Amino acid sequence: MPNNIQAELSHKFTLRIIEIVFTTIVLSLIFRPFFIDLPIYFLLIGIADLFLMTGFYFIVRLNLLPKWEITLSLLIALIIILPTLAISGGVNSQMVYFLPLYPILAALLGGHRESLALTVTLVAGTILATIFSEYIVDLTGGVYSKEMSTARGFWLTISIILSAFFGHFFLQRYTEVTKQLKEENTLDPLTGLLNRRGLNTHFSKELEETEITSSPLSLILIDIDYFKKINDRYGHDVGDICLIEVANVLSSTLRKRDIIARFGGEEFIIILPSTTKNQAALIADDLKNVISKQKFSDFNLPITITLGVTDSRGQHDNALKMIKRADKALYRGKDKGRNCVELSE
């Protein structure tokens, strides 16, 4: 779901950018003749850019190439700007001052690969335009010396490279911060296990995988027996330590592909991909035995757990139904005296 929301926002953002560029081109074609007298080439290029942006707008609007929208945006930006640069003085054009922004935009909108490709293209084009600057005719009427063109080409190249490094650094920091925020939003701060938000994300993926592959999926709901007595007698600090240690024991006992989360209070939930209910019952029994053999906190407290086990039941099943079945099984286990494994009906 978060990926879908991000893709939709990116899609809408791309549409807004296209609309702004389209409007800018139209306004420049209408009002530019009132301020500056330019050769007919600029008018023809502007009209060609309008057709290009119109076609691209409908491609994005109809969502024909969703995976290529950013790459196409960057490519079309170059297609629009390079012809104008070529006939307005090359590296001496007033428009080149915008070029160092492109690697940053490519990094923010696309990623490292897009930024690198754009940087290489711009640097190569700038070097060639500098070398052959004497053959580039400025149709706006500007006259430049060889030394001026070389100096501008040099500093433009340096600016583009520095811009690419800045874009790379910014994107790296942004990725790190985003990852940290995502982890903080999906992890339980006490035990370090997934919280409910993180559980829901993984649970949805596993249910989709189960539906596609028709593979089994099981769930174990765990409750620490008489945990309230530990809090009342020894205090919540000791209770928290017991929760952390129980979480660590459960995590270390499970398989790598299994998913464990703190469900709330003293409850834990485990998702077991490609696992039948009978197999899940054996895993639950192992967890019960491992916990009952351990001592927890500095007070060496004995702890037991009660476990409810269920499995996915086809296309019309969902996370909520599975948890409810496991919860009912868990409470039957409590009614039978706790420290046991109970299967759902």
Automatic annotation (TrEMBL):
Record field: catalytic activity: 2 GTP = 3',3'-c-di-GMP + 2 diphosphate
TM ranges: 13-34, 40-60, 72-89, 116-133, 153-171
EC number: 2.7.7.65
Pfam families the UniProt entry points to: GGDEF
Residue ranges of every copy of the GGDEF domain listed in the record: 215-345
Top-level division of the source organism's lineage: Bacteria
Gene3D superfamilies cross-referenced by the UniProt entry: 3.30.70.270
Transport among keywords: no
UniProt GO MF annotations: diguanylate cyclase activity
InterPro entries, alphabetized: Diguanylate_Cyclase (IPR050469), GGDEF_dom (IPR000160), Nucleotide_cyclase (IPR029787), Rev_trsase/Diguanyl_cyclase (IPR043128)
Keyword vocabulary terms for this entry: Membrane, Nucleotidyltransferase, Transferase, Transmembrane, Transmembrane helix
Protein name: diguanylate cyclase
Source organism: Marinomonas primoryensis
Lineage of the organism: Bacteria, Pseudomonadati, Pseudomonadota, Gammaproteobacteria, Oceanospirillales
